[in-house]
Amino acid sequence: MAGIGFELKKLFQKRGLAATAKAYGYAGVICTGPMLLGIVLLVGIAFICDHTGATRHNRELLNCMITYTLLASLTVTSFFSMVVTRYIADMLYEERHEAVLSSFWGSTALLLVVGGIMYGIFLLFSGINLIDQFLCLEFFGELIVTWNAMSYLTAIKDYKGILISFITAVAVSLLVGFLLILIGIPHVEALMIAVTIGYGIMLLWDVTLLYRYFPQREISAFFFLRWVDQFLPLAFTGLFTNIGLFAHLVIMWCGPISVHVQGLFYGAPYHDVPAMIAYLTILITTVNFVVSVEVNFYPKYRNYYSLFNDKGEIKDILQAGNEMRKVLNMELKYTALKQLLTTALAISIGQLLLTYIFRLDLMILWKDILGHSVSAMDSMQLLTQ
After folding, report:
1. What is the DSSP-derived secondary structure letter of residue 97?
2. C-alpha neighbours within 13 Å on the C-beta side of residue 41
3. What tens digit of pLDDT does each residue of 287-309 get?
4. Whose CA is closest to 101, among 223, 235, 227, 226?
């Protein structure tokens, strides 16, 4: 999140509810944009499927194909993410901007080759047709480039451009998917094509932003591997952190509550939906943590350590240290309180939301069984029974 603090300080200097909401929204999009993009995309695809006559099987298969591809690409790129971030920080500190862009293509090439082989083998035995395998592999490649580019884009500080690329990708994916279904292309292929087009646009947009900012020089694309060798624990930290974040999904897909969709694709709706809602609730802590650190804590922290560097007096150092700890304790309490209230609200309305989702899912199942639209009155009678 290099440089986000400067932008947040500017936004929080403005008074008013609208300015505060804009600042928090800005921090939320930048900190959690990629994952929010995936959630919005999945919800949008489910909405299109529900309103264009897609079967339950097609909807579940689409959800699995996109989810599996998202998680696989995030896991593969997580091995380089922290090391690449360290490399970029070092190059910017040394003012060697010309060494940054070449490392992007070097790391991307390695991730595409290694990740493409592993995911390609999975797709080969996944039980889906050849066209769907190709679309998943294409989508996987685009995601590899996009996630890797995110490590570099934070150095640019062009957050408006990044936000526009997110919104454009989602809008184009949903619009193209709807149009392809209208002209008669099957749901699975139509929406997978749409997703690859949407993310392809975001990929080109992000790469264009990188080329506008970083200069091009004849430097080895694999020079950054020295940092991988030097900071190998960082690489495994990124990998295992990512595995820890998503392992519970895979465990549930292999457990007794799993639902077999097709081939190697499994789902666990009774776990996946609550997990997604739980993730959305902790965004409050994520955003507030970033805002607290960058806007309130960091100035105290910088003042405290600048007194050491500038050989300040002992009493000033002690006072600055007390102020830093006071702000830290206060911000942690506020963040915990906000998360507590958010969690309580989610628990209060969660049952109503899950009941609605269950009823909607049951109505779709009845439509598939009966083979025609069910009236509102008939639906209510079926649900009551």
Report:
1. G
2. 30
3. 777 777 777 788 888 888 888 77
4. 223
In one-letter notation, the amino acid at residue 230 is Q
Q: Which amino acid is at 214?
A: F
Q: Six-digit token pair at 11?
A: 């936004």
- pTM score, whole prediction: 0.77
Q: Which residues contact 25 (CB under 8 A, 6 or more apart)?
A: none
Report the C-alpha gap between 200 and 154 in whole angstroms: 20
Phi–psi pair at 231, nearest 5 degrees: -115, 45
Q: Tokens 């595409």 appear where?
A: 112
pLDDT above 70 coverage of the chain, percent? 81
The radius of gyration computed from the CA coordinates of the chain, to the nearest angstrom, equals 24
Q: How far apart are CA 304 and CA 84, in angstroms?
A: 29
For residues 338 and 285, the answer to whether their CB atoms sit within 8 Å is yes
Task: Indicate the pLDDT class of residue 140, thresholds 50, 70 and 90.
Answer: very high
The values of phi and psi at residue 183, to 5°, are -85, 5
- Which residues share a beta bridge with 260? 266
Distance separating alpha carbons of residues 286 and 289, to the nearest angstrom: 5
Output the CA–CA distances (angstroms, integers) from residue 215 to 101, 122, 158, 294, in the order listed.
Answer: 7, 38, 16, 29
Those residues whose C-beta lies under 8 Å from the C-beta of residue 221, and which sit 6 or more positions away, are 102, 103, 105, 106, 109
Sign of CA dihedral 100, 104, 110, 114: positive
